[in-house]
Amino acid sequence: MDKPVAALRKLPSVDEVLRSDALAGSVAQFGRTSAVAAVRAVLAEARKRGGAGDVAAFAREAAAQLEAEAQPNLKPVFNLTGTVLHTNLGRALIAESAIEAAIIAMRNAVALEFDLGGGRRGERDELVRDLLCELTGAEDATIVNNNAAAVLLVLNTFAKGKDAIVSRGELIEIGGAFRMPDIMSRAGAKLREIGTTNRTHKKDYVGALSDKSGLILKVHTSNYRIEGFTKEVGARELAALAHEHKVPLVNDLGSGTLVDLTRFGLKHEPTVAEAVAEGADLVTFSGDKLLGGPQTGFIVGRKALIEKLNKNPMKRALRVDKIRLAMIEATLRLYRDPDRLAEKLPTYRLLARPLKDMHEVARRVVPVLQDRLGAVFKVTTVPCAGQVGSGALPVETLPSLAVSISLEGRGGGRRLTALSNTLRKLPVPVVGRIEKDALLFDLRCLENVDGFLANLATLKAPEAG
Are 245 and 269 a contacting pair, CB within 8 Å? Predict the structure, then answer.
């Protein structure tokens, strides 16, 4: 008898492995069905190798497989990229009060669409309407899934089959090649682009206005800037023109902010209250960018127009659930105390974080990283420039501090790439960036230093090759 055949015959049965003490805990935790599938997969792999093994070893291998399969696909990571509102890493971190509100909403029945005073059906938007009106000065407000949905709903409600007039210099593209003209098309609006990429005049709007006009759309170019020989028509002047021709002016702020960012050392961005005061009939903006909350699209403005939006059947398809509403309400309440916003809202705490804090973090992190990586790698600190992210303040940089890991000599680039890959495979993946022959970890967003250092316990430097 061939040795491989003899070895295969010595493989234990699925039932033998399942009865092993080494797998008992996993069966209880993950269920018999999942355990059977894992054991079969382990034994099938052993057959391919033509090898044998003892029952306990196969049981441990199956248990490890079950444990790995149970790990969530949506993993927490250490964001050391230098981008505070990183789109690919979930954008804004949620305030503790908003997290607590979400937990309460998840664990309990809540008065989502129920008027507790009258004992009748209510409207879910009423939960945050008054707060939004208070913070923006608008007559009314409604909310949807995100800002793209907000723009879509507005266009479909007021410009379906009609012209939506917009400057060529404001035909933005947001993440994932999602373009404003495409949103207009899906909304049923007809794009009426005017002016040139860098210059649009009032006469361009006047020439485009007709009985076919549904609205004028002004788009704040929050994710890019056109500089030099430029011209645009201000929102206040556009509002007067729109009202003269009896069409609404919609001001899409994109990222949107409820406070003056200069209080955090950043460049001023138009606030929602300013857009409302300038005469826009509707203002749309995001909740998960500069506002620092969960993904949401806000629409504030004239009451009569908001009522029309809420009657659009599309609104139901774009509405938000109780969990997000709970987070939105809690986040908006923080804006009632702007002086303490940086204490309670992670977005502004990180944007306003002083360099001295990052130097203290570096003092703890650098020696541990150097010890784990060995003398072949050079671990130092370097000044660097971070960014807000998610298209907000695109030309604004944040003075920051980074841990720099470099490696001299041939093959250094490959080993840095390998190290970056290794760090992303840690229990909590570490995400940085490679720049100028160094792996950089921007420390602005590293607050859980103890957790970060503990996470490095299993780190091993990649071998040369």
Answer: no
